[in-house]
Amino acid sequence: MTAAAHDRGARYHAGLGARDRTMIELFTAATPNGWKASITLEELAIPYKVRRIDFDKREQKEPWYLKINPNGRIPAIVDHDNGGFSVFESGALMIYLAEKAGKLLPTDVKGRSLVIQWLMFQMGGIGPMMGQANVFYRYAPERIPYAIERYQREVRRLFEVLEARLTDREFLAGDYSIADIASWSWVRGYKWSGVSLDGLPNLSRWLDAIGQRPAVKRGVDVPEPVDLEEMIRKADEARAKVSGMLV
In Å, what is the CA distance from 238 to each residue of 47, 138, 191, 228, 231? Predict the structure, then answer.
């Protein structure tokens, strides 16, 4: 891909003059992991350029992109303010950006550890389990009740862990942090996973409160807005489109 072709899919964010400033280049798509990156960038007010990765064209597997992310997944960033340094894996990316800006991640040992613990809770639990629930509930060509029930049950258990954690606190790890952004980006899709929030008032309160943040509203519209309710109404279309991409 030529530099000109590469740039055609780009959009600029984070204020006037962003195009003329050294910035982060974000390679992403409208998924929970993609939202983790774009919301973090919006919350940190770091100027960035968006390059949408087209899954239909399998751009994530093209040689130019594998040089940025050898795993062929989104999101990834290139920091042109740091010698073109690339970062892949959404959690690593969030830590990198938070440290770069000096926000959303405490610098004291205990505070930092607490945020990273809850970030890893999302990375190792919420994300993988909701991802598998989505695959078997929404996309798999054959319905396997055991698999659907197993992953939905585990997602609900993880939601109950969040519910208990939020009983006497506003956010997961002290002040609002990348830990909240990470879990929120996935939990907001609970209906798509076929999991209920009934009986989880603390989690519901947290979900609604974070969803009202201006930076969060901007971040979930990157690289384009997604209507989750409309997705559910058109679930059969989504199944047909995505089933061939599950590699």
Answer: 32, 8, 14, 12, 7
